[in-house]
Specification:
The protein has one domain: 3-Layer(aba) Sandwich (Protein Transport Mog1p, Chain A), CATH 3.40.1000.10. Helices cover 20% and strands 33% of the residues. A hairpin with a 2-residue loop joins strand 3 and strand 4. With 251 residues, it is α+β, with helices and mostly antiparallel strands. This is Lipoprotein LpqN. Keywords: Signal. It comes from Kribbella sancticallisti.
Length: 251
C-alpha cells in the first residue's frame, strides 16, 4: 500500500505517540518522528564516492557530485601500508549510540556507530565516522527526499560505473525491522549497492552503500554507506546493518 503525504504525517504522529510511551534510548532525547519526504529540499551526497576529494555534493539525490573520495582519507596512506592492516572483524566492532542534528541541540538523528571512530559533521543531518587508521568509515545522511530508493540507487550506479577499477559486486533489495524502541513497528525497506574501485592513494576500496525508505513509503528516508577494503566486506555490511536497524529521526 502506498501512503499519501497526509497519511505519512498521520503515521508519523502514531509513531510519536508510541515514542512518548516507550521513550528514546538516547538520554533526554525527545520522541522520534519519521519525517515526511522532501523535508530538506536537498540531499547531500553520501558515501565513499570515487571521483573527487572535495566536500559532499548537495541537491543531487545522494550522488556525491561534490566528491567524497575516501570519506576521511589521509594523504600519504599507501596501498602497501593499508595491506598490512588485518581485516576488520565484525565481532570485534563495539558500538555506541551517537546523535547529531539541529546545531542548537545536536538532536535529530540517532544511530549505533562504531565506538572508537571519530565523528565529523558535514551538514545538519549528515556525518562521517572514521577509524583512527583512516581505512574504514561510515557516512550517514539523514535528509529525507522525494526521490524513490530505486531512483537514487540507479543514479549512484551511473555516477560511479566509469571510475577506474569499478566493479559492482551486488545490488540487493531487502528489509530491516527497526530495533530502537522509539521506532517500534517501523520496517525499513532498502536497496544496497556493494562495489569496489581502485584508489591510487590506498589501493582497492570496497563500499557498501544503502538507500532506505520507511514502511510503505517509496520516498527515501535516509542514506548511509560504509567504506573499507575488500577484505573488510563482512564487517562493513555488519556496520551498515547495525546503523540501519537503530536509525531514528527526532523532530
Amino acid at each position: 500500500m502506498n501512503l499519501s503525504r497526509s497519511a505519512l504525517a498521520a503515521a508519523a504522529g502514531a509513531v510519536l505517540l508510541a515514542a512518548v510511551t516507550v521513550g528514546c534510548t538516547a538520554a533526554g532525547a525527545p520522541a522520534a518522528v519519521p519525517p515526511a519526504a522532501g523535508d530538506s529540499g536537498a540531499t547531500p551526497g553520501t558515501g565513499e564516492t570515487p571521483g573527487g576529494t572535495g566536500t559532499s555534493g548537495t541537491g543531487t539525490g545522494g550522488t556525491g557530485t561534490g566528491g567524497t573520495l575516501g570519506s576521511g582519507a589521509t594523504p600519504g596512506t599507501t596501498p602497501e601500508a593499508a595491506g598490512q592492516v588485518p581485516a576488520l572483524a565484525a565481532e570485534r566492532v563495539s558500538y555506541v549510540q551517537r546523535n547529531w542534528g539541529d546545531p542548537k541541540t545536536e538532536m535529530g538523528i540517532v544511530i549505533q556507530a562504531p565506538k572508537d571512530w571519530s565523528m565529523a559533521k558535514l551538514s545538519t543531518f549528515e556525518v562521517r565516522f572514521s577509524s583512527a587508521n583512516k581505512l574504514w568509515n561510515l557516512r550517514v545522511n539523514g535528509w529525507a527526499t522525494d526521490d524513490p530508493v530505486k531512483t537514487l540507487a540507479d543514479r549512484k550506479y551511473r555516477s560511479v560505473q566509469s571510475v577506474p577499477g569499478f566493479q559492482l559486486i551486488s545490488r540487493v533489495n531487502g528489509s530491516t525491522k527497526a530495533t530502537n524502541p522509539a521506532f517500534s513497528g517501523v520496517v525499513f525497506h532498502h536497496t544496497t549497492l556493494t562495489y569496489s574501485y581502485l584508489e591510487p592513494a590506498r589501493g582497492q576500496r570496497l563500499v557498501v552503500e544503502r538507500f532506505v525508505a520507511f514502511n510503505d513509503q517509496p520516498h527515501t528516508l535516509f542514506q548511509l554507506s560504509a567504506g573499507g577494503r575488500p577484505q573488510d566486506a563482512a564487517a562493513l555490511k555488519a556496520i551498515t546493518d547495525k546503523a540501519t536497524a537503530d536509525f531514528i529521526r527526532l523532530p
